[in-house]
Amino acid sequence: GAGVSQSPSNKVTEKGKDVELRCDPISGHTALYWYRQSLGQGLEFLIYFQGNSAPDKSGLPSDRFSAERTGGSVSTLTIQRTQQEDSAVYLCASSLSPARYEQYFGPGTRLTVT
Amino acid sequence: GENVEQHPSTLSVQEGDSAVIKCTYSDSASNYFPWYKQELGKRPQLIIDIRSNVGEKKDQRIAVTLNKTAKHFSLHITETQPEDSAVYFCAATGNTGNQFYFGTGTSLTVIP
Q1: pLDDT in tens, A66-77
Q2: Of the spans A37-41, A52-56, B55-59, which averages the highest pLDDT?
Q3: B106 touching A, CB under 8 A?
Q4: Residue A39, by phi and psi: left (phi above 0), alpha (psi -120 to 50) or beta?
Q5: Cα angle: A64, vertex A88, A77; to 5 degrees
Q6: Whole-angstrom Cα distance, residue A82 to residue A111?
Q7: CB distance from A53 to chain B under 8 Å?
Q8: DSSP strand pairing (B106-111 vs B10-14)
Q9: From B47, which residue of chain A is nearest by alpha-carbon distance?
Q10: pLDDT (0 to 100) of residue B21
Q11: How much of chain B, in percent, has pLDDT values that exceed 90?
């Protein structure tokens, strides 16, 4: 079946512009995670959604970052006024239920801020 | 929050030898410990996981051991092959169960 998809696969933007990154989780997966992976680094947790519950935003690095999940499915990560340090691969993952099952990762969006 | 440390950061082994990667965690409430493999330019994929009610789990050439008292867990790969070359990440769930705290990764190179 279809896996987790993300779009765009690559995004180049100028410093100061806003960007939106999209994640389509696997159908039926209630948990959705966003991570950031900088070059040669590990995965940094950003935000977690579970069903209709309030999201866990504790990993968002600044108030320039926000995320939504509409209808318990598609999620959008928005970065406002992008900075060069925002350049990274942004990975989305979904799982059948929170923190008890395998996370399936999307291919990521490579964001480059010039 | 949880703090996961992973060692070594790089590891080179001869084909056929074993590789061991170790992780420690800080939050005794963590109860789920997955290992992910990430090949160059690809997404992380789960290779094995262990829950806190077991001490060891094996899947063909891969095994994971967990010591809850010492708060460490390890990945063991036996009879390594060149296709095992990748970056491996460990993770722990922390006390909320909502988040996954990842280690910084181990770059494994298997030399033919």
Answers
A1: 999 988 799 999
A2: B55-59
A3: no
A4: beta
A5: 40
A6: 10
A7: no
A8: parallel
A9: A102
A10: 98
A11: 78
Which helix H or strand E contains A72, and what residues bound it? Answer: none
Closest CA to B71 of B10, B15, B4, B11: B4
Q: What is the pLDDT of residues A7-41, one digit of tens each?
A: 999 999 999 999 999 999 999 899 999 999 988 77
At residue B73, what is the residue type?
A: F
CA torsion through residues B25, B28, B29, B35, sign: positive
Rounded to the nearest angstrom, the minimum Cα separation between A112 and chain B is 16
CA distance A108 to A94: 13
- Nearest chain B residue to A5, by CA: B43
pLDDT in tens, B16-56: 999 999 999 999 888 889 999 999 989 999 999 998 878 99
| Cβ burial B77-99 (10 Å sphere, 16+ → b, else e) | beebeeebbbbbbbbbbbeeebb
Could you identify the residue written with the tokens 């493999």? B37
User: What are the tokens at A87?
Assistant: 């350049």
